Amino acid sequence: QKSIFHGRSYECYAPAEEFVQGWDRDNKHPEWVEVRPPNPYLNPDYEYQYYMIDWRDRKRYSIIDLEAEFDYKVDFFDVDENDNIVHRDSTVYNMTYMVWLAENLDFDYRVDGKPYGTDCFRGDCFSDSSKAFGRYYTWAAAMDSAGVYSNQGVGCGYWDVCNTATRVRGICPEGWHLPSKDEMEILLGYLKYEYKDRNPAEILRAKGPWRNTDGYNTDDLGLSIVPAGDRVDNSTSVFYWYGSAAFLWTSDKKEETTDMSYILKIDDYNSEEDVKIDAGGNTMQFSVRCLQNFW
Questions:
Q1: Distance between CA atoms of 79 and 87, rounded to whole angstroms?
Q2: Residue-wise over 106-127: b if at least 16 C-beta within 10 A, else e?
Q3: Torsion-angle region of residue 194: left (phi > 0), alpha (psi -120 to 50) or beta?
């Protein structure tokens, strides 16, 4: 059954639990969920078997899971009596499972009923481009610095000093979190491990919307990273790098005394440097991809 409310289409359904992340397992009753056109930049050759529902606004997102016997090693060292650095031991961490949103977050973050640190492409939140590219967020908004949904990122933003030692839900739906710098690095390590001789950017970039590398992108993982570019907060329709770069926030600030935080940056130059961990100004507005909680 479908219904129109305030110009938006909704449908009532009770999906099988195993195919939905975020299903209300306590109530287990049918819910109204917004019906949106399929994201045109999801990989048409990838079978998206699962999705999640953000019950705050009842929007549905495709998700992908990465599973591999991928080990990465951290070495520990000591200093002996002669001040020589001596290898002590190594710890091997096994990355077996990660679940990511396959689309940029498109949530209207509000504080006291007013939009806070977020905007849509060219200010039109109902355009096809806005739905495909998601919203833009300052770091303060991505971290939920106002504490609307959790207290893990309270006070984080701009020049403020904050402690992000723990996992930060931020603006993400319940059961999900804003990826840390380490988790972004694990993703890049996974790409190097699974696709040793290939440019990792080609594996991450969506097919179609990239200006310079459209014919090279394969989107093997189904993550379908889109070149949403960035936006200057409080400016009027000033967008940069749209069509040629993607910037995804992490929950880690670069340094306590700066107004910059770590991001995953993906460029469009078809080179080995197209994907890297970089830093972006906290007053800029970038995209958000959420990662599901598993620990």
A1: 9
A2: bbebeeeeeebbbbbbeeeeee
A3: alpha
Between the alpha carbon of residue 36 and those of residues 15, 61, 214, 295, the distances in Å are 17, 10, 25, 31
Q: How far is CA 40 from CA 1, 129, 132, 145, 224, in A?
A: 24, 10, 7, 32, 10
For the segment 201-234, what is each residue's pLDDT rounded down to a tens digit? 999 999 989 988 777 899 999 999 999 999 886 6
Query: What is the enclosing helix (H) or strand (E) of 8?
Result: strand 8-13
Residue matched to tokens 């977020």: 118
Q: Dig out the tokens for 166 from the structure.
A: 């723990």
Q: Which amino acid is at 191?
A: L
Residue type, position 52, single letter: M
pTM of the model: 0.82
